[in-house]
Amino acid sequence: MGLPDGIVAFVKAECPTCVTVEPVFRQLAGAGVAITVYSQDDPAFPSGVAVIDDGDLRVSYEQDIQIVPTLLKVKGGQVTDSFQGWLRPRWEELTGVARLGDGLPEFRAGCGSRTLDVGMPEKLAVLYGGERLRSRRVELGSQEDPVEATYARGWSDGLPVVPPTPERVLRMVGGTPRDPGEVVAVVPPDLVECTVEKAAVNAVMAGCQPEYLPVVLAALEAACTDQFNIHGVLATTFASGPVVIVNGPIAARIGMNSGVNVLGQGNRANATIGRALQLIVRNVGGGRPGGVDRATHGNPGKYTFCFAEDEAGSPWEPLAVARGVAPGLSAVTVFAGSGLQPIMDQRSRTATSLAGSMASCLRVVTHPKLALAWDALLIVSPEHARVFREAGWSRERLRDELYARLRLPWAEIVRGAGGIAEGMPEPMLGAEVPKFREGGLLIAHAGGTAGLFSAIVGGWSSGPAGSEAVTREIVE
C-alpha cells in the first residue's frame, strides 16, 4: 500500500509522547502542511486533524513502524526522511514549519509500536507477509482439540505436542537467518526433503524456543549424512537412537544444562532440541515405531537425548574442538547411542586406577566378548575429571590408557569361550583384539560437581557398515 506525498505520521492514543505532541498535528494542519496521520488504536486521535484508522496495523506493518510517533517525509511515493519520537528541531526540519510545539519539552522518546506487541509480529506476518510459509495448512473442526488432533493424525511421539500454528512457526523460523524454503537435509527413511520451515514446524511441536532452531538444524544435517546413517539407526532391532552433544557459546546462551542431572529431565533446551530431531525423523522422514523403526526394546533416549558439554569446568578442550571444529565456534556432535550405563568408582584417587575402572566397565558395552563393531561415548563427571586434571592427563592420554587396557585376549572372546556361544568369530586376528576401533571411543565432560560417578553410552554397529559420529558447526 503506497503512502501519500507530504508528511505521514504514525501514532497511538496510548503513547504518552503522542499525547504530548497532539497539538503539533493541529499546528501543522493549520500551517497548510499536507499531513496524513495513521492511528493504530483510536480513529479519533489526534483530534482536530484527519485521521486514517490503522487499527488493523496493515500500513504500520508494511512501513515497518517500530516506534510511535514516527514522522515520515514522502515524495513520489518514496520515504525521503524520517524520525522516531519527538525532537523539535528534527520535526521542524522535516515539515518546514518553525516554532513547532512552543511550550512543549524539546525532546521526548517514543513508545513501542503496536506492531511489536507480544505475538503481534507473527500475526501480522501471517496476515500481510505474503506466502512466506509453504507448508500445507490442516484445518480443524470447531470442536476438535488441537492436541488430540496431533495424536489422531500420528504426529506425536506419544507425548503431547504444541500445535504448530502459523504464528508459532513464523516465530520459530525467526530464530535462524536461513531462508524458510532452504532444504536442510533429505530425511530417511522416505528420503523426503526437509526445509528450514518443516524443521521449524517440528521444533514448535517439540516445545523449542526460536533460539534453539540453529542447534536443531545442525543436528538434523549431521544425522542425515551417510556417515551417521539415521536410516540404519532406525531400522535396526538394536536399541540405538541419536544422541546430540552441544559445544560452544550457544549452549550457555540458550540455557542448556551441562551440570546436575545433565542426562535427565528438567531443562527445556536439552529436552526439546533432541525431541525436535526425533519428530522430524518421524513426521518428515516417516521413521515410526512399528514401521521402519523395528527396535526390539528401544530406549528412553529415543524421545530425546541431548546435552551440552561442560566446557568451563573441563580439564580438556571441547569435544567439538577435538573433532576438528575451530575453538570458539558452536557445534553439535551426533552419536548413535543405545542407553545409559553408570560407572561408580568412589575410591580411586589416581588416574591409573580410575582409568582401570572405566576400562572394566567399557568392556561390557553390547557384550564383553564382542569387539571392534560397537563404539561408545564416555561421559566423565567433574569429580572424576578432577583426578585426571590433577594427574595432568589430557583427553588423548586417557583415551590411550583405555585402549591399552581394552586389549582383549582372543582366547577369552572367541565364540564358545567360557561356555558362551556368543563372541568373536574365527579366524584369529592375533593374540589380542582392541575393544573399540580407532576413533570409536568418544570422551565428553558433563555432570554435577558432586558425585564420583561417570557414565557410558554404548553405541550401535560402527564404521561404514553402521554409524559414525558426525560433528557439524552450528550456523547462527
Describe the protein's architecture and organization.
With 476 residues, this protein is α+β, with helices and mostly antiparallel strands. It contains 17 helices and 20 strands. The two termini are 33 Å apart. It has helices at residues 16-20, 22-30, 58-62, 88-95, 120-128, 146-152, 166-173, 196-206, 213-223, 230-235, 249-253, 268-283, 319-322, 351-362, 382-391, 395-405, 410-413, and strands at residues 6-11, 35-39, 51-53, 67-68, 70-75, 78-84, 86-87, 107-108, 111-112, 183-187, 192-195, 241-247, 306-308, 331-344, 374-380, 407-409, 432-434, 441-445, 453-461, 470-473. Strands 12, 13, 14, 15, 18, 19 and 20 form a seven-stranded mixed beta sheet that branches. Strands 3-2-1-5-6 form a five-stranded mixed beta sheet, with helices on one face. The longest helix is centred in the middle third of the chain and has 16 residues, at 268-283. It has two domains: 6-114, Glutaredoxin (3-Layer(aba) Sandwich), CATH 3.40.30.10; 148-473, no CATH class.
